[in-house]
TrEMBL record:
GO BP, one annotated term: negative regulation of DNA-templated transcription
Keyword Translocase: no
SUPFAM superfamilies: Homeodomain-like, Tetracyclin repressor-like, C-terminal domain
Record keywords, A-Z: DNA-binding, Transcription, Transcription regulation
UniProt domain HTH tetR-type: residue ranges: 11-71
Protein name: AcrR family transcriptional regulator
DNA bind region: 34-53
MF GO annotations: DNA-binding transcription factor activity; transcription cis-regulatory region binding
KW DNA-binding (keyword) present: yes
Source species: Nocardiopsis mwathae
């Protein structure tokens, strides 16, 4: 006798389906994964998957969106309003690496697999990457402010430095997955050092070197 499945709100059930899809996609890849396998992992029928997400393509897109949301939220929630700019940069990057270390399936779907699929997912992945990049850029721009209101480097240089730091962070995630003994804290320190070297390349105390923006004074 088949037991009746407990009815759950649609939003809750959709999240369960996406949870199952992330696990299946990360394990066997997009092309090999079947809707039947995802439905079985989610504990629902195959037709219900189509009702909730529309198609296998729609399901994979939903995974990209949800995991990007979770990554951005992990970075934002780690930031303390009373922290110094440099502390906020540290906390944000550490949260980024902790998410990757703690959600390996999510990362495989969001970056390693989705970016290799081409159309129609390349646009979705690009948008997800931009959201993460914007978060890191905001942290670097804030982290290069001086206590007196000036800046170690200009906002434009800070944005360029953020691209370098984010690129290093992106590359180091593969290192993190390949080296389980490497900690998020170790990788955060490495990226922070890259940011420091880049900042000090422009900043010389007491000298108006290239890129330095002095605080405005009253006229």
């Amino acid at each position: 006798m088949v037991s009746k499945q407990r009815r759950l709100p649609r939003q809750v059930r959709e999240q369960q389906v996406i949870d199952a899809a992330v696990q299946v996609f990360s394990r066997v890849g997009y092309h090999t994964a079947s809707v039947e396998e995802i439905a079985e992992a989610a504990g629902i029928s195959k037709p219900m998957v189509y009702i909730y997400l529309g198609s296998k393509e729609g399901l994979f897109t939903a995974c990209i969106h949800r995991e990007a949301d979770r990554l951005v939220e992990a970075v934002r929630s780690a930031l303390r309003s009373d922290a110094t700019p440099e502390q906020r940069l540290w906390e944000g990057l550490r949260a980024f690496f902790r998410f990757v270390a703690g959600h390996r399936e999510s990362w495989k779907v969001l970056y390693q697999q989705a970016r290799s699929q081409g159309e129609p997912f390349s646009k979705e992945v690009a948008q997800a990457r931009c959201r993460v990049m914007d978060e890191i850029t905001a942290l670097v721009v804030s982290g290069t402010e001086l206590p007196d209101g000036g800046r170690i480097i200009s906002t434009e240089d800070a944005e360029l430095l953020a691209r370098i730091a984010a690129g290093a962070a992106d590359a180091l995630t593969d290192w993190l997955l390949e080296h389980p003994r490497e900690t998020p804290e170790d990788l955060t320190m490495r990226v922070m050092e890259i940011a420091r070297i880049g900042a000090h390349r422009y900043y010389r105390p007491g000298a108006a070197g290239p890129g330095i923006v002095r605080p405005r004074t009253g006229s």
